[in-house]
Structures are given as structure tokens and as C-alpha cells.
Amino acid sequence: MKVIILTLAGEFTLEVGLNEPVIEVKQKIEQLLGVPVALQTLAVYDWELMDGLDMEDFPIVVEGTKINLTITPIEQSMSFCNKVQITVKFSTRRINIEVERTETVKSLKEKIHIIEGTPIKRLSLFFSGIEMDEDYRNLCEYGIHEHSEIIVFLKSVSRQRSDPIPRMLNLVVQTSSSLLNSASIPLEMKESSTVNELRQLLLVRKVLPQDDYFFIHKQRIMRDNCSLCWHGVENGDSLYVFKGTISRGN
Known about the structure:
Layout: E1 2-7, E2 10-15, H1 22-33, E3 40-44, E4 47-48, E5 66-71, E6 83-89, E7 94-100, H2 105-116, E8 123-127, E9 130-131, E10 149-154, E11 168-175, E12 183-190, H3 195-204, E13 213-217, E14 220-221, E15 238-243
Parallel strand pairs: 1-5, 6-10, 11-15
Antiparallel strand pairs: 1-2, 3-4, 3-5, 6-7, 8-9, 8-10, 11-12, 13-14, 13-15
Protein name: Ubiquitin-like domain-containing protein
InterPro entries: Ubiquitin-like_dom (IPR000626), Ubiquitin-like_domsf (IPR029071)
GO molecular function, one term: polyubiquitin modification-dependent protein binding
């Protein structure tokens, strides 16, 4: 499909595939404009397209979707010396992520959640045999450097014999003027509720008309059959709703 790349100097069309990695789209732009991948920032609806994801992970569902390209000036490129490539290793696979050494452990967990969909609460990170258990410490305080390998262990979700009372979440559902009238709708739902149950609630309350919509939380398209807890939704978070359908399975 063709998308429109918007720059300060103008715009141009680019052929991309929904299964195409974001990094490969940036490489195409580098070939066309001569702008190094490291100096490119792509965004759609003000959400940055992260290198570890594919185009289908973002609300790019129609021909002609507009994607903003921001180019970091050369004089500011020295700030990239703080950025390093690390490897995040799971039991069955590994992924490469670009991080800043000054960002926090919590920020890294959020990036892993966006790319992998693993609930943040289940993530336990280890580097050089030491658990990175303080979310607000900087990565550099744990000695993270270029090509560091971080091991991920997933915490088990234990169930007590008597199930606890489901936790309630106060959420805000954000709609845009391109979809309906721009609005912020406060909701209270169980953390165990699925995205499909959220959709049905909005339909019953006539917040949304009977149509096709998808939801986004922290830059990641939400899956209908998965719970809010599975998506890592926390109390006070915002969910964004867009018109359209996602062709990939849940």
C-alpha cells in the first residue's frame, strides 16, 4: 500500500507493506533522501513508529495514510552518542532495541511491552546476574552499554484458592474529531475485562455507532480477545479509538 510521508520541505508517496518492519521503511527513506536512519523519527497520529515493530502494529489501515517524518539536525546528532543497541533475550527468542543509557528501567519495560505485548507486571529483567528491580533507576546505573544483553524472566501469575475481587480501573477513552466529535470519555472497568467487552460497553452507551473500530494503548494496537490487564493497562491510563479494521488475527 502507498502512504504519504510528510516533511518540512514537502511530501512524497512511499510503497510499504503492512508486515514490513519500521526499520526497513526508514532504510527506504535513507535511499531516497540520503537521511541516515538514526536521524529519522516517523510518527502517525503523534505516535512514534518504533524500530522493533512492523507497520501493521500502528493505525496505518488505509491507502494514503499520512506519516510525519522529523529529521534531527546534524548539530544535534551528537546526542545520539548516549544511545546504544541492546539485546533483550526471552526463553525462546531475542529482540534488539535502541535505548538511551539515561532512561529508566521502567521505560525499558514499557518498550518491551509495546514490542512484545507482555504485561509490564510480569517482566523481571536481569543484567550480568543482577536483577534490575528498581524501576526508576537509570540503565547506566546498572552498567548498560552498547550490545549489552538483558535476560527477561516472566513472573508467574499465581491464583489463590479463593479468587480475589477483580481490581477496578478508571480509564479515559479518547476519540478524535476525524472519527466523531473529539471527546474524553471516563470509564470504570475490571482489569480482567476484554477489549471486546469495552467495545460492547461503548456501543450500549451509544458512545460509538455500530461500526468497525480498534483501540490503541501506549502506541500498541489492542487485541479484542485479550484483557486490559494483559495489555498492561493501569489505573488512569488513556485508550485511543480509531475507525477501521485490522486484518491480522487476534
